[in-house]
Amino acid sequence: MKSEVTDILNFFEEMALAINSKLVDENTLRGFFRGIVLTHVEKFYPWIKRRREIANSEKVFQSITELYERWQNGDGKQI
Questions:
Q1: What is d(CA 68, CA 34) in angstroms, rounded to the nearest whole number?
Q2: Segment 26-73, tens digit of pLDDT
Q3: Out of 21, 34, 55, 71, which residue is the most buried by the measure of CB atoms under 10 Å away?
Q4: How many CB atoms are located within 10 Å of the residue 30 CB?
Q5: Model's pTM, two decimal places?
Q6: Closest CA to 6 of 49, 39, 44
Q7: H or E, element range at 40
């Protein structure tokens, strides 16, 4: 399971980095992936938090959690 979670989150992290670098259109990816990203980050946030503790770094999966916050649209949901 660890490998699958890592693969999923790495894909989303790469997508977030591509958006941040303006290599891809954020609105297009948001249309396709918003629900999937929000669901997976919420589901795996305890796992992300644990990886950050192990690495002693808040930068672990930072881009995807920032994208998550941006894509929430201020609906008040917090992880």
A1: 8
A2: 999 999 999 999 999 999 999 999 999 999 999 999 999 999 999 997
A3: 71
A4: 16
A5: 0.85
A6: 44
A7: helix 26-55
